[in-house]
Amino acid sequence: MYHYGVGKTATSVDLALHPPPDGAVLFRWLYHEIRSAILEGRLRRGARLPATRELAKRYRISRGTVISTFDQLQAEGYLEARVGAGTRVNTHLPEDLLPAKSGVSAAGARKSPRPKLSKYGLRLTPAPDVRVPPPRPFRLLTPAFDAFPLSLWSQIASRRLRGVTRQLLADENPRGYRPLREAVSAYLGSARGVRCTWDQVIILAGIQQALDLTARIVLDPGDEVWLEDPCAFLVADMFRAMGARVVPVPVDDQGLNVAEGRRRSRRAKLAYVTPAHQFPLGVSMSASRRLALLDWARQSGALIFEDDYDSEYRYAGRPLPSLQGIDTTGSVILAGSFSKVLFPSLRLGYLVASGELVEKFAAGRMLMDRHSSLIDQAILCDFITAGHFGSHIRRMRELYAGRLAVLCDAVRRKLRGALEIGETQAGMHTVGWLAVGLDAGAVAKAAMERNVEAIPLRRFCLKARHPEGLLLGFASVDDNELRRGVDRLAAALEDCSRRSSNEPGASLRGSRSG
Amino acid sequence: MYHYGVGKTATSVDLALHPPPDGAVLFRWLYHEIRSAILEGRLRRGARLPATRELAKRYRISRGTVISTFDQLQAEGYLEARVGAGTRVNTHLPEDLLPAKSGVSAAGARKSPRPKLSKYGLRLTPAPDVRVPPPRPFRLLTPAFDAFPLSLWSQIASRRLRGVTRQLLADENPRGYRPLREAVSAYLGSARGVRCTWDQVIILAGIQQALDLTARIVLDPGDEVWLEDPCAFLVADMFRAMGARVVPVPVDDQGLNVAEGRRRSRRAKLAYVTPAHQFPLGVSMSASRRLALLDWARQSGALIFEDDYDSEYRYAGRPLPSLQGIDTTGSVILAGSFSKVLFPSLRLGYLVASGELVEKFAAGRMLMDRHSSLIDQAILCDFITAGHFGSHIRRMRELYAGRLAVLCDAVRRKLRGALEIGETQAGMHTVGWLAVGLDAGAVAKAAMERNVEAIPLRRFCLKARHPEGLLLGFASVDDNELRRGVDRLAAALEDCSRRSSNEPGASLRGSRSG
Lengths: 514, 514
Hints:
Chain A has 514 residues and is α/β, with parallel strands linked by helices. Chain A has helices spanning 26-39, 52-59, 63-75, 106-109, 119-123, 150-162, 166-170, 178-191, 207-218, 233-241, 258-264, 287-300, 356-368, 374-385, 388-414, 440-449, 479-502, 508-513; strands at residues 79-82, 86-89, 201-204, 224-229, 245-252, 255-256, 270-273, 303-307, 332-337, 349-352, 419-421, 429-434, 455-456, 469-473. In chain A, 41% of the residues lie in helices and 12% in strands.
């Protein structure tokens, strides 16, 4: 087998130079090429250049020319040579020789292109390039990292990598790794009441991809889609970017109001719903609404996208099987994610569909990005079939029930009269309803100043009006952090009332009444 | 910390039952629910049911009812109870009770939906659900699995998993993991002559995703795109599925014929090219054609998609820097893949863009599938920054040069007069030109019967006419397998000539002349 270097020092960089123009003096050409590679930052400080012999051979020039060039560049301070370490770009190159550090990006510094974009391209709204900070109270849609059995996962991953087969490295099936599809189908059958065989399961990068793929396969620009109102940002953004006509359908304590949906749009081809635990309101869709929604789909020939995002967590009452499980006409596309149960950066999820849709999804996936990493799929499959996934969900269900209780208790004790949490039976977040007169935007801002995330409910509303509320995730941090979070939220609420009494003109109550 | 079960036997399944109708007899309801879950295959043989106490609590029924139901189902042979192992679905359930095995899928058996699809959805052509067999001669676009340092990769992966930070688990940036973007930018700068800063690099699932994203951001249905002719299947399929007007532009020994492209379409908004090593013909785009292509893009405001898919491998002559490196107007989007250098199931690649395009790509990625697995990105980053990636490429360059020589030698000795390989200086495949009179389709079919992959060149042609040729990948299998592959190809060629002389009507030469 091959010997691999043990560190940066062991290997020289590959070096691709633009060819010398006809009749060029080779010394001058080589000098210029290497020098500009250094000045433009393509050759980094400390980077080791190929051996003179190798360069000479590759570019069919004499070794003497290469040596003279290196000597010259060394004399000028661009390169340095150390015995046994070859020739490198000078690690102490003066700052002023080097290009502006990115941040002021070369992308901006170069003559900026004004490419002609598509309608989709023009509709995309760039988001700032920021790192997501580590979990803090009350992050949404984020599991408990501290409780994820990383070393167990790592063991399973290592075992799988050591025993990896050529088949596993070579296969590429846009439907996913068959044993994982079988495991997912078995899990969904028992835990979510989903009626499907393994070949109806497609492994994807997550719910967002399932939704994007569904939208592309079902909707043309101008087609109507029902969205729950309120609704997750990325869902509404995605449909709008692709040119679909978003029809907001209000949500009440029984879930999506199907009758209102019918009034607002009879021609919708797709409905997006979160029946298990509405995002963001947290209600579960009632049995009669489920039947009404299926009725509508059957009559109108529309499809239903069931986003089953945190259905694993139900703390009271009986488990609620999926909408898909009571559908008899193949109108429901169900999608779920492993990233929200295990860890977000995993990027594995699934969808379940019927009939010809399965093959359309597979064909679309192939053209979009082919398939998900097979090794990641195999590791996850091992984790599930060994029983760890089931155990993990049960542990997390207990853990999150405890965290929810801690949150409710702390809110009752510290925020009485200012913020109230309704009965919460499921999921990884709840809504904190603010007392009349408090402005969720102002509270959220003050909370963020204290390193607490509490997103105003109204930011998720398309047209709907709701009392002022804050979304509070309770899964991602432990009991103590949750309690500290509530303390800091209480302080933020005080900041707000202080500000609004001190500067009535600029206050947020003021900003509404004029 | 939590204790996790050690195997399948340790945990019971989660069980979601459809709620009892009002006034239902609870025993009958529970009996029916569990029995149909078993009969429909949602509860598998051997699956362990939740404890009676837990079920009773969850569904708010008496434990006595649960016990009677279990007893009844056990008496009928659906369940079995073992001391200390709880109640399970009978592992010896008679075959005839169980649902038809998939294959005849329930997807088909259920009332098949006829959903209204979008134009994109209608254009998608389903592909058969087959496993890709392990590498065999002369598989295309597939690296040498046998030479990939799996144990080193596995060590690096384990180290990264053991030391994983909450930041790494939590972050989600559609642009990718910053240290990996820096490493890619450094690598591309030196090895490919790419001029970019790290913030112009976006990590994606691969070249196919880069292309799909580019197409969505740049093209509306009906817009024209230049494709090299011949061209990879998935590229043409992708553009057609999204409704773009594909303009085939012929390729000669200098690469894409820019003048011919201008004649065929002046309004194209995008050109797709493989300048380093044209797929599938294998030619490198000449310097004058590169300049002509950039000129066209500048004048017409079009963008160029540079697919740099196997540019790492150049066996003779000087390295060819990327087209992106000589572009001064930001017209080139460069994309590359790690899957073709390391292993196909990895699903990591990159694109490099300029100006506002970078942010458009990031915004589009977020809506498509958010981002790539951060842990996978971090492992790859460790592999690169420790120097292993550079070493691996150099090893593979030597290895593939050797395999190419073995292939050429064997073809010269065994296939003289029937198949000829031109001068090959780069990449992971070459074209074998067939002697006049031989039909590539017939030879490919006969080769496949002997477990040898040799795809006819004409299958990649959009409109172009070329002499009959077969594509021969030489990277994925070792010298001995390559030699055996040539032997089997020789036998296949004999099969063909025997068939064509025996059955002139059905022969492939016959099928042309009538």
